[in-house]
Design a protein that fits this description.
Radius of gyration: 17 Å
Largest sheet: 6 strands, parallel
Strand order of the largest sheet: 4-5-6-7-8-9
Number of helices: 13
């Protein structure tokens, strides 16, 4: 990984960045992560294409790699695919955050009767960010069981990184419509749209223009891998510039089929300027999370 490390270092140094803040990285219980990797290896129905895992390492090595890249803060994105799983994942994530001070304490939820209770407990325990995966979880974000969750997170101002776009494969409740209905009820909800909302990029940019607390993360967007099958429309580049204060670096580390540096170079070749890159890769998240 020497070349990757050097490429990231050169990127940071050219921009004069003290480091990177990556709001979309995955750390989860080992047995869960191994199942996720096995799913990618099998080209499952939610991917349907070859997806080699570039950073298939033990947890300690993955942490060391992120830090060697100059990542100052990151997340432990994790998500349930069935009931009675989220509270257990949250307990693991709280322990992980306690032993990993540069990780933003992450939590998750699922539509179930006790969701409001365990989300409140996670907030009281110090959770800084939540993850919702509408594609994998296959649930409607407007499920009444989630009403107390969205309300609590909106009131507390705690962001939710949400996979709500229909890429790489559509789900029953993906696309801008379902999550837009949540925002209509909770306009102050700090929502971070994962993957720039791919492939409904334009529609999710509109949501960000409509709701000042909506942000988008760059995870896998603009890379060669994604541009091959879900390209970002060039006509929307001016809107990226206009929303430069509400776009956050995300990568999907370690579950990416290319080197970490490629995500950074993919942003660089948008040619939106160094101030835009500095904001996206560090300054926006620093201000947003108060780190």
């Amino acid at each position: 990984m020497g070349d990757d490390h050097d490429d990231v270092a050169r990127f940071r140094q050219r921009l004069g960045l003290p480091g990177l803040i990556d709001v979309h990285t995955h750390f989860m219980p080992e047995r869960v992560l191994r199942k996720v990797w096995a799913y990618f290896d099998s080209a499952g129905p939610l991917t349907g294409l070859e997806w080699p895992i570039t950073y298939r390492h033990e947890e300690d090595e993955r942490l060391a790699l992120l830090r060697s890249f100059g990542v100052l803060r990151f997340t432990s994105m994790l998500y349930p695919h069935k009931p009675s799983m989220a509270a257990w994942l949250n307990a693991w994530a709280a322990d992980f955050a306690a032993r990993t001070p540069d990780c933003l304490h992450t939590a998750t939820f699922f539509p179930e009767p006790d969701a409001g209770q365990y989300v409140r407990e996670a907030v009281e325990a110090g959770a800084r960010v939540f993850k919702a995966h509408l594609q994998v979880g296959a649930y409607d974000p407007n499920d009444p069981l989630l009403d107390p969750v969205w309300g609590l997170l909106a009131e507390a101002g705690i962001p939710v990184v949400t996979h709500c776009g229909s890429g790489p494969a559509p789900g029953k409740h993906t696309g801008p419509g379902p999550i837009a209905r949540v925002l209509a009820r909770h306009p102050r909800l700090p929502l971070i749209v994962a993957h720039m909302g791919m492939p409904e990029y334009a529609e999710f940019l509109t949501l960000a223009e409509t709701y000042p607390e909506v942000r988008l993360d760059t995870t896998m967007a603009f890379t060669d891998f994604t541009e091959d099958f879900m390209p970002f429309p060039k006509a929307e580049h001016p809107r990226l510039a206009d929303l430069g204060d509400r776009i956050l670096l995300g990568t999907d580390f370690p579950n990416i089929p290319y080197p970490y540096a490629h995500q950074l170079h993919a942003l660089e070749r948008l040619d939106l300027g160094d101030p835009w890159l500095r904001a996206v890769c560090h300054d926006n998240a620093k201000a947003f999370f108060g780190v």
